[in-house]
Amino acid sequence: MDIVTRCGVPRYLHNDLPLGNPLGPPGDRDSQRLSVERALKLAAEVNVPHVEISDLTWPGDGNWKSAYARIDDENKAALLKMGEENRQKKAEDKDNGLFR
Amino acid sequence: MSEAALMNGFIEYMQRTRLYYRAQGFDNDYVWAHFDETPFHRLTKSLADCRVTVVTTAVTHSEIPKPIRKAESILFTDAPDRFETSELAWDKVTTHTDDRQSYFPLEVLRQLVNERKISSLAPHYFFVPTQYSHRATITEDAPSISAACLEDEVDIALLVPL
Q1: Do B125 and B107 contact (CB within 8 A), yes or no?
Q2: Domain residue ranges in chain A
Q3: Closest CA of chain B from A24, distance in Å
Q4: Which A residues in the span 12-51 are in contact with B, Cβ-Cβ below 8 Å?
């Protein structure tokens, strides 16, 4: 939500779901179809840039919101290591001409 | 609506991403691209007369190294049953991407064509790589997708990023 509204897009349907399943939870065909129909309706009906927040919710409790990109004492060292590996890989890619 | 009100209850991805990268030892925070004025084009047809396509960040050709992936135009008939998604930053703690229909609405769009709610599905969908470079996205990937949409006579492009 914050990234897309910062970017500024003509029409935005926000489903408040974990990243990875923007149209609806896995296997939930009704929600997935509803998302596409709502998006098409937005395309057809709004006359100015517009954000619509849907009423779809993720099944279960809301704990997924605190789990995403969590940083705590348990993963601190692993995150630093991941960053170092990432920087090293980027440098290697650059040396090998793999960049845009 | 103020930003605080807008974010009430929603994950603040920008702030969380900044902290996550800082925790990985990156010194410079990412700066997100934005329009000073949001572009907008009114639809001049009814939905039933519209041709629709999809723009996805899910990877079709994973054999191309991530740093040099560019926007691609791919036939819907060549869409993989399983896209490659492992290199994208979705919520791997909470969910999975085993159900293609949760992020790539091919079946639903076909149903809507059969029900005559939209006119047709475009021949191609489009891959857009997740890129740190504003330049690559704004001056290369987006214009190439836009041109391909015009060629396919697309009326509506649904951007469905993971």
Answers
A1: no
A2: 2-69, 70-100
A3: 5
A4: 14, 16, 18-29, 32-33, 35-37, 39-41, 43-44, 47-49
Record the tokens describing residue A24, joined without a space: 């609806």
Cα separation, A35 vs A39, in Å, equals 6
Q: How many A×B Cβ pairs under 8 Å?
A: 175
DSSP bridge partners of A12: A51
Residue B119: burial class (beta carbons within 10 Å; 0-12, 13-18, 19+): middle
Using DSSP, state whether B13 is helix, strand or coil. helix
In order of A57, B15, B146, the CA distances from B153 in angstroms are 35, 39, 10
Chain B hits for A86, Cβ within 8 Å: 24
The whole-angstrom separation of Cα A84 and Cα B65 is 20
**Local confidence pLDDT in tens for the 100 residues of chain A:** 899 999 999 999 999 999 999 999 999 999 999 999 999 999 999 999 999 999 999 998 888 998 889 999 999 999 999 999 999 999 999 999 999 9
B41 to chain A, any CB pair closer than 8 A? The answer is yes
Integer Cα distance of B98 and B101 in angstroms = 9
Which tokens is B40 given?
Answer: 């907008």
